[in-house]
Design a protein that fits this description.
alpha/beta, Aspartate Aminotransferase, domain 2, Aspartate Aminotransferase, domain 1, 9 strands, binds pyridoxal-5'-phosphate
Length: 376
């Protein structure tokens, strides 16, 4: 048996991806530096158009991060103090941070055990006269059932803000891609995302012309034209180097997403009857596998991670502490036991290595190690 070294199969291997695009990236960065237009220039303008076209949305507005994208979207919809926004507790902290920045109150709901996504019955029950918006999160790259959610929002007169930060290129049940169905959607290009910058970046997509104009102004200090500021905005600009890199990577994204899906199928096949709960793979491109997340029952999750780590296999936990149990959001008044599915998932989920450059041999090695541990 071969002995693996510590870094054999990391959770994410950005270096492996870089090696496939190094020449193009270096030329693009050099071009930006030769031109010395470093922010909101030709690459940002082109990337905004290309990303909007990719999603099938009318507009994309490049910003500094996914958190900026959510924050500006919430602000542009006029949500503020006294309002409520419904979202999930099983998500990355920024989803809720962005709501809190606006002064609105996040109303958390539980998730569905199979999809890891918002429990839509719970969301409907959480609506009050103060509710202004629902923020579904397409967690791990799997899209939320938007048809019923859009119908609910229409019936109740609510806005939908899609947190599509993990779902670049994922198809919705409406047939469109994430980013094209809600009034406004937020994407993150954090480095490890399916579409990741080499630094911080994000984008907001919308089909609404007026909202797009407002968002473009908000990302640059609320200015209408240079040095004229009708409103107070933010410094949330996307920079030219990141946009130039993202343009290159966007062209590869369909191929990379297809490979991620193939890897997920391969894992599922190998993990059958292993004792872990493998993720459901919905038909029709509804999952782009930003993360490949299994569930390890019976309190064995952390021991599995240790076992894999000793064999040089990287893992992650997305996420170990639900939002309702985070120290920073204790003031919201939630308690242990409020969201049983979320709490169960927080104790069971493990993300296995997932990136387009992962080979079938590596997937086999990871799956074999998981199965071996579960048999022991
Ligand atoms: C679901 C979700 N929402 C929001 C964010 C925030 O994005 P960023 O890190 O680019 O600010 C992330 C990124 O990690 C995310 O995964």
């Amino acid at each position: 048996m071969t002995v693996m070294t510590k870094t054999d199969i990391p959770l994410v291997d950005l270096k492996a991806q870089y090696r496939t695009i190094r020449d193009e990236v270096r030329v693009a960065i050099d071009e930006v530096l030769e031109g010395m237009q470093l922010t909101i220039g030709p690459n940002v303008t082109a990337f905004d158009q290309e990303f909007a076209a990719f999603c099938g949305a009318k507009h994309a507005i490049g910003v500094g991060s996914g958190t900026d994208a959510l924050q500006l979207a919430i602000r542009a919809l006029g949500i503020s103090s006294g309002d409520e926004v419904i979202t999930v507790s099983h998500t990355f902290f920024a989803t809720v941070e962005a709501i809190l920045y606006s002064g609105a109150r996040p109303i958390l709901v539980d998730v569905d055990e199979k999809t890891f996504n918002m429990d839509l019955v719970a969301a409907a029950q959480a609506i009050t006269p103060r509710t202004k918006a629902i923020m579904p999160v397409h967690l791990y790259g799997r899209t939320v059932d938007m048809k019923p959610l859009l119908a609910l929002a229409k019936e109740k007169g609510l806005q939908i803000i899609e947190d599509a930060c993990q779902a670049h290129g994922a198809v919705l049940d409406t047939g469109t891609l994430a980013g094209a169905s809600g009034r406004v959607s937020a994407f993150s290009f954090y480095c490890s995302k399916n579409l990741g910058a080499y630094g911080e970046a994000g984008s907001i997509t919308t089909n609404d012309d007026a909202l797009a104009t407002e968002l473009r102004s908000l990302r640059e200090h609320g200015q209408s034209t240079r040095y004229y500021h009708p409103v107070i905005g933010y410094n949330a600009r996307l920079d030219e180097i990141q946009a130039a890199i993202l343009r290159i990577k966007l062209r590869k994204l369909p191929e990379w997403n297809a490979r991620r899906l193939a890897i997920a199928r391969h894992y599922n096949d190998r993990l059958k009857n292993s004792g872990v709960i493998a993720p459901e793979i919905p038909e029709g491109g509804r999952h782009v596998f930003h993360c490949y997340v299994i569930r390890v029952p019976d309190g064995r999750r952390d021991a599995l991670r240790q076992y894999l780590s000793e064999r040089g296999i990287g893992t992650g936990v997305h996420y170990p502490v639900p939002i309702h149990l985070q120290e920073a959001s204790a003031f919201l008044g939630y308690r242990l036991g409020d969201f049983p599915v979320t709490e169960l998932l927080a104790s069971e989920v493990v993300s296995l290595p997932m990136y387009a450059e992962l080979t079938d041999v590596q997937v086999d090695a990871v799956a074999a190690a998981v199965a071996e541990f579960m048999r022991a």
